[in-house]
Design goal:
The chain has helices spanning about 5-10, 20-25, 50-60, 90-105, 120-125, 130-135, 145, 150-155, 165, 170-185, 195-210, 245-255, 260-270, 275-285, 295-320; strands spanning about 15, 30-35, 65-70, 115-120, 190, 215-220, 230-235, 235. By secondary structure, the chain is of the alpha/beta class. The strands form two sheets. The chain has a six-stranded mixed sheet with strand order 1-6-5-2-3-4, sandwiched between helices. β7 (about 230-235) and β8 (about 235) form a beta hairpin. α12 runs antiparallel to α15 (about 295-320) and α13 packs across α15.
Length: about 325
């Protein structure tokens, strides 16, 4: 397979595309980005899906950009949220931005393929004055269209409602896409399905300004078969930082995934060939299948990706050390 769109579609990684022309465009090297707001000082397991999206594009020869939301993190994205995020201090935000930068440098560290690029949207959004932003950017957005976005409609119908600050978030993200195309040559934005409204706001804004064609791609929100949000546990978020969650604890969360979820997670969170995953799926249906074999493979692959070989070895040592009869 020589096209990243075909690969992602086969792995169940595609939810929507702004245009099927992206497949043709992906036959040549592209620049693709995904945004991450610094709401904490670590990514969590759910954030691995967009990271894997960037990694797959990189494996097919495209340049991945991780955009840390030093500016948008000061606003808070209402998408998928039932209430407004509490505003963080400037000091906390800057600390979180530094921590996320370190994690991206670790996760997108492939030996081959184009080198990943990390940028902070505060570098361009932070220089706007209120008047210049309203005059040069916000004037291109229509309130009726903005209110029709699913993330906005859901919050407007809630008891808390939606602040003007959150309502403006999609304008900031839309400007990001335009800016990144003009100044970095980025033509693709990826994100979870709840980002569709923000992504299409960007493609439409760019079109109004006479820009060249840009594309949006979303992947399904990753929820567990029991309806719980992926990346969370009874104890809280499943952090990627070893300072917040040890490699052993991280490994165990994956090892305890139910059978109903493990194949989907192998497709979306590992680089295992699809044929190998299909073979594991068939094996799980057989009478000779050893329980948790698929979970063990999932836990090993993802722990290795996040914590490296040393982290995986440490997790396996502790696991073996507390196993019954050891």
């Amino acid at each position: 397979m020589d096209n990243v769109i075909d690969c992602l579609r086969e792995r169940g990684f595609l939810d929507s595309l702004t245009s099927e022309e992206l497949r043709e465009a992906a036959k040549r090297p592209l620049k693709v980005y995904c945004g991450f707001d610094p709401t904490a000082d670590s990514l969590h397991l759910g954030n691995l899906v967009p990271v894997m999206g960037l990694a797959w594009f990189q494996k097919f020869g495209h340049t991945p950009y991780a955009v840390v939301g030093g500016a948008t993190g000061r606003i808070g994205d209402p998408s998928g949220k039932s209430s407004e995020r509490p505003l963080m201090s400037e000091e906390t935000l800057e600390q979180n931005v530094r921590a996320l930068r370190q994690q991206f440098e670790h996760l997108l560290r492939f030996k081959s393929g184009p080198k990943p690029v990390l940028v902070n949207n505060h570098d361009w959004l932070g220089s706007f004055t209120l008047i210049s932003f309203l005059r040069d950017v916000a004037k291109h957005f229509r309130v009726g269209v903005m209110m029709a976005k699913e993330s906005v409609r859901a919050r407007l119908q809630s008891e808390e409602g939606l602040s003007f600050t959150e309502f403006s978030y999609q304008i900031l993200q839309a400007y990001d896409f335009h800016y990144l195309n003009v100044h970095h040559g980025i033509t693709v934005q990826i994100g979870a399905s709840d980002q569709w409204g923000n992504i299409t706001a960007g493609t439409e804004f760019h079109r109004k300004l006479g820009g060249t064609q840009i594309f949006g791609l979303t992947f399904p929100l990753l929820t567990r078969s029991d309806g719980k949000k992926f990346g969370k546990s009874e104890e809280g978020a499943i952090w990627l930082s070893p300072e917040k969650l040890s490699p052993y604890q991280f490994y165990q969360h994956l090892f305890r995934m139910p059978d109903a979820d493990v194949i989907r997670l192998l497709k979306m969170l590992t680089f295992l060939p699809i044929r190998e995953i299909q073979a594991i799926e068939e094996e799980m249906k057989s009478s000779v299948y050893v329980p948790n074999t698929a979970q063990k493979r999932l836990a090993e692959e993802v722990t290795r990706f996040v914590h490296g070989e040393e982290g995986l070895e440490a997790a396996l040592r502790v696991t073996e050390g507390i196993a019954p009869g050891s």
